[in-house]
UniProtKB/TrEMBL annotation:
<protein>
    <recommendedName>
        <fullName>Aspartate carbamoyltransferase</fullName>
        <ecNumber>2.1.3.2</ecNumber>
    </recommendedName>
</protein>
<comment type="similarity">
    <text>Belongs to the aspartate/ornithine carbamoyltransferase superfamily. ATCase family.</text>
</comment>
<dbReference type="InterPro" id="IPR006131">
    <property type="entry name" value="Asp_carbamoyltransf_Asp/Orn-bd"/>
</dbReference>
<dbReference type="Pfam" id="PF02729">
    <property type="entry name" value="OTCace_N"/>
</dbReference>
<comment type="subunit">
    <text>Heterododecamer (2C3:3R2) of six catalytic PyrB chains organized as two trimers (C3), and six regulatory PyrI chains organized as three dimers (R2).</text>
</comment>
<feature type="binding site">
    <location>
        <position position="105"/>
    </location>
    <ligand>
        <name>carbamoyl phosphate</name>
    </ligand>
</feature>
<feature type="binding site">
    <location>
        <position position="56"/>
    </location>
    <ligand>
        <name>carbamoyl phosphate</name>
    </ligand>
</feature>
<comment type="function">
    <text>Catalyzes the condensation of carbamoyl phosphate and aspartate to form carbamoyl aspartate and inorganic phosphate, the committed step in the de novo pyrimidine nucleotide biosynthesis pathway.</text>
</comment>
<keyword id="KW-0808">Transferase</keyword>
<feature type="binding site">
    <location>
        <position position="220"/>
    </location>
    <ligand>
        <name>L-aspartate</name>
    </ligand>
</feature>
<keyword id="KW-0665">Pyrimidine biosynthesis</keyword>
<feature type="domain" description="Aspartate/ornithine carbamoyltransferase Asp/Orn-binding">
    <location>
        <begin position="152"/>
        <end position="299"/>
    </location>
</feature>
<dbReference type="InterPro" id="IPR006130">
    <property type="entry name" value="Asp/Orn_carbamoylTrfase"/>
</dbReference>
<feature type="binding site">
    <location>
        <position position="83"/>
    </location>
    <ligand>
        <name>L-aspartate</name>
    </ligand>
</feature>
<dbReference type="InterPro" id="IPR006132">
    <property type="entry name" value="Asp/Orn_carbamoyltranf_P-bd"/>
</dbReference>
<feature type="binding site">
    <location>
        <position position="133"/>
    </location>
    <ligand>
        <name>carbamoyl phosphate</name>
    </ligand>
</feature>
<dbReference type="GO" id="GO:0004070">
    <property type="term" value="F:aspartate carbamoyltransferase activity"/>
</dbReference>
Amino acid sequence: MKRHLISAADLSRDEALLILDTAEELARVSERSIKKLPTLRGRTVVNLFFEDSTRTRISFEAAAKRLSADVINFSAKGSSVSKGESLKDTALTLEAMGADAVVIRHSASGAPHRLATWVHGSVVNAGDGTHEHPTQALLDAFSMRRRLGALDGRKITIVGDVLHSRVARSNVLLLHTLGAEVTLVAPPTLLPVSVDTWPCAVSYDLDAVLPKSDAVMMLRVQKERMNAAYFPSEREYSRRYGLDRDRFAKMPDDAIVMHPGPMNRGMEIAAEVADSPRSTIVEQVANGVTIRMAVLYLLLGGDTA
């Protein structure tokens, strides 16, 4: 593997499959009563989070600790990080501490790429602005593969606020690499201008796409990133793009429902759909630890372990 994981596009098909296969092996460790491995003993992993996060930060922390790494949680909330220099000063501090890996979440797209030019350790992108979130795409692919088998030729539908979703972009890139056929479904106002350059199809009609989908991933409507009216009302959005019981019934019997979380229950997804046996939402959280263990293991210890 390369030294950093900044974009899902950084991964070749073989590298992506290596991560998924390694995670499958490490999943067995998570099922044991003692969940620790000595692989990264003596290594230091820094969680550098400039944005709020629960699932991602805790899951990276759990992953590093299960591999016996030392973990430093650096919460930068309230810091002046909008200027590149302040991020550089933070990077130099981490370098002085001897960080072997820095896991960064930042509101500015491109921040992990900048950080990678300043530190000698590995940089893992845990979400940058509206750009990418590669480990989320990996855990989503891992969750799909466990339920559906190989992803070659599978039809994956991603629905909702694509414009503000780093998860959507990373999933489109990774799933295309793994041979899946991805369709984005969203109002025209919630699609990026550059979407026609993405390796996927686009539809505005959710009802037409659902019967052909092997997996449907609902995206959270990111109201906190919206400074304009992207749709008439929440009720109208839910009526046209929400996954309710009636739409759920149109999906094939073995199709699965996904959501990267946190959910707006009742808006983009009905509670009964989110809690159904065909939903992988809780599995995705558990699989996040396993995938992040695999990424850290391969970046920091895979060659020597």
